Every structure is written in structure tokens, then in C-alpha cells.
Amino acid sequence: MERNDFPKDFIFGVATASYQIEGAYNEDGKVPSIWDVFSHTPGKIKNNENGDVACDHYHRYEEDIKIIKDIGFDAYRFSISWPRVMKNTKEKNEKGLDFYNKLIDKLLENNITPFITIYHWDLPLFLYEKGGWLNDDIALYFQDYSSILFQNFGDRVKHWITLNEPWCSSFLGYFYGIHAPGHKNLQEAIKTDHNLLRAHGYSVEAFRDLVKDGKIGITNVTTKVEPADETEEDFYVALLVDELTNGWFYDPIIFGRYPENARAILQRNGIEIFENDMNIISKKIDFFGINYYTRQLVKYAPEEPFMFRTIEGELEKTEMGWEIYPEGLYDMLLKIYNRYKTPLYITENGMAGPDKIENGKVHDTYRINYLKSHFENALKAIKDGVDLKGYFIWTLMDNFEWAEGYSKRFGIVYTDYTTQKRYLKDSAIWLKKFLEGK
Ligand SMILES: OC[C@H]1NNC[C@@H](O)[C@@H]1O
Questions:
Q1: Span 180-189, average pLDDT
Q2: Interface confidence: ipTM more than 0.90
Q3: What does the entry list as the binding residues for substrate (predicted)?
Q4: CA separation for the pair 180, 168 (Å, rounded)
Q5: In 113-176, which ranges are continuous DSSP H helix?
Q6: Active site (annotated) includes residue 165
Q7: Which helix (H) or strand (E) covers residue 74, if one does?
Q8: Bridge partners of residue 394, in order along the sequence
Q9: Measured from the CB, is residue 119 less than 6 Å from ligand 1?
Q10: N or C: which end of the chain has fewer CB within 10 A?
């Protein structure tokens, strides 16, 4: 497989997120985010690590852009730190906007197409103190914030993603409690997700007025859900869990309605479902971003409130304990495209590996094999009719992996956190050759 097997205008990119790489957590007028508070709370993050410095990208962005250029990527997906550009619900932080203007200009200077993610989890603390995603007003605060970004960057940035993985923001942050703000309440998770989708819709509405020649979408983490065994019960719960983890975040945007079976089982568990603003939530988008990593095996378990248990699979796993399952990428690309008939980008795909550095080298052959197999499945999906427009690798350099701190390395570039030196791993060198094959 070669780069030229992909369509000529197919985009290969690399992705990061503000809280995971920037550092400078309290510099140049940046106000706290919920992740600053959460990571400073003992016991929340492995080894009690935090994003205060991270990869110091705030001060090293020029060097990092040079690496992106050297490897040969067409595009770079990054997120904006809401608390870095807004001091409160009304006032902008000009120094924060300046940082992103310089970043965008440097990318364009290097002929790298910027893709902006408006929200990648670092909610300003001043909003959390007003109820955060539980407060219905947040959708309009998000519209105001989005509009400021569109007005400041929309002249040069034409590809926008409103939210990264609302499932993570709502279920990990408000139900499982392992992400900021660390709540454990299913009704809150369903409420926050509905407000996240409302915020997405209001942002799309503003975008149509402010960036008329741009494209906007939303990114969902998308997992292949499979029955643990070939029994009718396992097949049923696999369909149910697919609705709860995937359909719940896609259907409202295209159909203006939550998936039926998932609604029913949530309501059977006494959870209120929200239907307001579906006309806003389903404002027409230009693409879906798919973040694909692995599959989830489920087993019928009538004793459980949602009638299923997740089973550990037997396939080779990454350092996150996620099975390596490239066929699942093909399956989900076909499924999502055929169900929603909306153009797609893979906005994240990659793996955490047992990366060890020796004499400045990291022999991550496993990551090369991971990427190759997923590229092959993406190409197969294109040949089978999926309108797939691009593929962003997660991630550029090792960075802050949320509750795992710095213990998990997803980068194609090795980050030495004591010196902040970057080292290209073998996977980056392989990608450079692959991308040169234009
Ligand atoms: O877990 C790997 C990645 N998954 N998607 C969201 C990113 O912020 C994560 O680092």
C-alpha cells in the first residue's frame, strides 16, 4: 500500500489537544479549566501528574510545526483552550488569541492546513461554577465563544470541529467520574450530553453566518461493538450498546432523535430523556469526524441495569489494554457512512505503545504495523464507497493522557519531559517515507 493508492485530494494529518500539550496553564491571562482543578486534586491522575507544563507547546509551537512539516503531513488538527481565549463569559483574552493567530499563521506559512477543534474538554472553571454542561445556558455561552473564534480565525481556517467526543465529556466526566469534573450520576451524563449537542448546534448556526466558505462537523469516539458469543442475547445487547455509545451521539445530529432501544432502557432505569432543541442539534453539518481505536465485546447479563457486561477480548492489546482491531475501522466507516450519508474524516487513530528510548531512537515497529493495518482498512472502505476525506493520526508527540497522566505514550514523536526534547520514533520516519510517496 502506498500514499498514492489514496485519492489525490485525500488528507493525511496529525492531531493534538490543548490541555494535553500546551502547558503554560496560568500564563498570559489564561484562567483555570476544570482539568487544571481535576489534575491538581490528589488521587485523580496517575502519579498525581498534571498539565501545568505538559509538552510546553505554548512556548515550543514553532519547533513542533517544523516537525509536522518535516514528516510531511498535509494538515494539523489542534484544539483551542477556551479558558486561554476567554477571561469570563464576555471578555476575550487578547494574548490567548495572539497565540493561536501565530500558530495558524506558522502552519499556513508551512503549507499545513489547520483543522480547529473548538472544545476538547478543558471547560473554563468560571462556567463550571455556573453549572457547566448541566446549565442549559452553556449552549449560548458556547455559541458566543465559537463566534469569537470564527471572527478571529475564520478568514484563514476553513475546517472546524465543534466538539471532541461528547461521549467522553458526558460519560467519563459525569457518569464514570474518571475525567473532569469527576461526577458519578447517569442522569447528569444524559443531561450534559444533550447540552453538548445543543452547544454543537448553536455553534453550527453561528458558523453559517460567520465562515461562509468553511466546513464544520463534530467528532465522535466510535467503537466497534461486538457480541462476545454468537447468541441471540449477545447480539441484542451488542445492538443496544452500539446505540448507547455510538448512535446516541450521531442519530440526533442527522435524524433529530435519540435511538429507540437506548431511549427505552434509559427510561426503564428512570432516566429523563431530553427532546428540546432537536431542530438546533440537527443543523446540517459538512462532515463527521470519527475517532477509532478498538472494539468492545459485550455479553448479555440480565442482572445488570443495562443487561450487559463488557468482556475482555483475546486479541493483541495496546498499553491502554485496547484490542488492536483494524477490521473494526472498516466496519464502522461503512456503518456510519451508510447510515448517515455524511462525508467522514478519521480525526483520530493511533496507539499507546511500550516506547523505550535508546540513543535517541525508539523502535516502535508495533506502531508502524498498527498504522499500516488501519490505513489499509481505511483504503478498503474508500474503495467500497465511503466518502472518506482524510485521516489524522493520534498523536504528534507523547503528551498528557488524561487520567493516565504521562504514563501512556501515543506519539509518533517521543517527548522527554525532563528536557522537553522531541525525538522522531521509527513510526515518524516510516510516515515521512510513506507521505513522500505522493
Ligand atoms: O485516548 C487517546 C485519545 N482519545 N481521544 C481523545 C484524546 O484526547 C485522547 O488522548
A1: 98
A2: yes
A3: 20, 120, 164, 293, 394, 401-402
A4: 10
A5: 125-128, 138-153, 166-167, 173-174
A6: yes
A7: none
A8: 15
A9: no
A10: C
